[in-house]
Prior knowledge:
Low-confidence stretches: none
CATH class: Mainly Alpha
Largest sheet: none
CATH topology: Four Helix Bundle (Hemerythrin (Met), subunit A)
Amino acid sequence: MNFPTFLTLLRILVIPLLVVIYYLPLESKYWICALLFGAAALTDWLDGYLARRWNQMTPFGAFLDPVADKLMVAVALGVLIEAHSSWLMTFPALVIIGREIVISALREWMAEVGESASVAVSWIGKVKTTFQMVSIFLLLIGPPGELLSWLGLGLLYLAAILTLWSMYLYLQAARPHLLPKEEKQA
């Protein structure tokens, strides 16, 4: 267990805490949840940076980091879907969650066939993640309907568009390995 992996595990432990606090009858629950999510999002960047900088990259850390990210985003979006109770929130959230499932399965399969480099994280994936994290942070700051909530929702739609774009790029990169040879020639 090294420090970057500890930060990743900490990010996973924050998830249930965020959910519990979001449903407590506290006036400050929105800010607390936004700050917890923001801190967790920053550790997403920090753990990778430190692992590379200190040469502490491990197979367990490489496995756990994307799992922590996807759990954090999916759970936060799930809470927000329920809180907003609107298709306006549900649609982009489900696009993002659905894409994460598709790309995770694609990466797993590509690793099995020895082509994981074909679906490595790209710059568009990093931009998408940034928009996701900022939008979720803004959506958590206050109750639905406030100005920052609308701004967060707008950024979530941008994240959903980038999500679809990055998924298309990943699927295109994997396409030669997904189609049987007979279909490739047709």
